[in-house]
Design goal:
Layout lengths: L2 H25 L5 H18 L1 H6 L6 H8 L4 H13 L14 H15 L3 H9 L5 H35 L5 H28 L4 H28 L14 H11 L6 H18 L9 H8 L3 H11 L4 H18 L8 H7 L5 H12 L3 H7 L1
């Protein structure tokens, strides 16, 4: 099987899965409609971008439609960026200002207008044959790679901030979703690095290497789509968003330092800490697997801002770790109880507020230095 046939086969499979998953995302009933629509758009744009081998089979030489298909890649990473923002923030809405993300695509279209879109077929052929010397093509490739770098940096910064906000305000197991989305973005970054390498060879004396790399890229795209499909189907409630109005504790501390003398509220903090510990010990709110700092704030009547500073700053713990410590202590009590030897580890983790075995094992080992099974055997 030659490389052309292999590329076409992989492309057809990738297109089929992309369109199938996109249709699934836009038709499935869910409260995360905006996120689903954005990722469906990302899949369709990716499908259009990777459809070049099939497109070339049904067209005779360069065309405006073919060039438009190529420049559609400028919409790919902005749509993915908006998808990540929509996943991270529960109050995200598409607004007119988001149309600014169309600028690179529009700029490239305008740059190609004089010497490609508005000329005859013969001139188009000459433009493509001499593309290595065309300033428009060089500009297009440079802008594309700059766009990729800028957007990927922005995505990683958003993920880092929202993960920290989640740790400071929530105690559910959905933290795994941010870890997974970070992994997904990392794989996507690797894919763009390969695209960059392909483009280097495309404008070198070894363009045939670029064709082989193109096959690898198409295969990797197929792998990424299948990976996402597996995650989406096996974890339909994968993401839990945070409120974009929430502030990081470091920002709150900085504001307090600028407005209040240090130690002004030390006595108040001690009283609130005592009230918090009594509430945690007596009411056991940590047994709720979806507990948030807002829930505790409402019950003990301490404003979220002060409670967040108390736990995340004064105690030096993320809210996530603070709550999990109580859950682990409760689990240790059950594991020590010889009358509950027949209670399984899975039953215990659900009972104390976890709903993920991996999260429970990680938290338990971090707290005790042992796995739950080893801890029980040593009792």
């Amino acid at each position: 099987m030659d490389k052309i046939n292999l590329l076409i086969i992989v492309t057809i499979i990738s297109l089929f899965i992309s369109v199938f998953l996109a249709l699934f995302l836009v038709t499935v009933k869910t409260k995360y409609k905006t996120s689903n629509y954005l990722f469906a758009a990302f899949l369709i744009i990716t499908a259009i971008d990777t459809s070049e081998p099939l497109f070339n089979m049904i067209t005779d030489g360069p065309s405006n439609l073919g060039m438009f298909r190529n420049t559609f890649a400028f919409l790919q990473i902005p749509v993915f960026y908006l998808y990540v923002v929509s996943v991270c923030y529960s109050d995200f809405k598409l607004r007119p200002r988001h149309l600014l993300h169309l600028f690179p695509f529009l700029i490239v279209s305008l740059v190609l207008l004089p010497r490609f879109y508005s000329v005859d077929t013969a001139s188009k052929i000459d433009f493509i044959q001499n593309r290595q010397n065309m300033i428009e093509i060089q500009f297009t490739h440079l802008l594309f790679h700059i766009q990729i770098v800028v957007y990927l940096i922005a995505v990683f910064r958003i993920l880092r901030k929202t993960k920290k906000l989640y740790l400071e305000n929530y105690a559910g197991t959905h933290i795994n979703s941010y870890n997974w989305l970070f992994q997904f973005t990392s794989v996507l970054t690797f894919l763009y690095l390969i695209v960059f390498l392909k483009n280097i060879f495309k404008f070198s004396d070894y363009p045939y290497i670029s064709e082989w790399i193109k096959i690898g890229i198409t295969g990797l795209v197929l792998f990424i789509i299948c990976w996402y499909l597996f995650k989406a189907l096996s974890n339909p409630g994968l993401f839990r968003n945070v409120d974009s109005k929430l502030k990081l504790v470091s920002e709150i501390v900085s504001e307090e330092k600028n407005s209040e003398p240090s130690g002004a509220h030390e006595k108040e903090y001690n009283e609130e800490l005592l009230r918090l510990k009594e509430y945690m010990a007596e009411e056991k709110p940590f047994l709720n697997s979806s507990l948030t700092i807002q829930d505790i704030s409402r019950e003990i009547e301490i404003p979220v801002r002060e409670l967040s500073l108390l736990i995340n700053h004064q105690l030096g713990q993320h809210f996530y770790d603070f709550v999990n410590a109580y859950r682990i202590e409760s689990a240790m009590g059950i594991l020590k109880d010889t009358t509950k030897n027949k209670v399984t580890i899975l039953e215990i983790l659900y009972e104390v507020g976890f709903n993920s075995k991996s999260s429970f094992n990680t938290a338990f080992k971090k707290h005790t230095g042992n796995t739950p099974t080893t801890y029980r055997k040593n009792m």
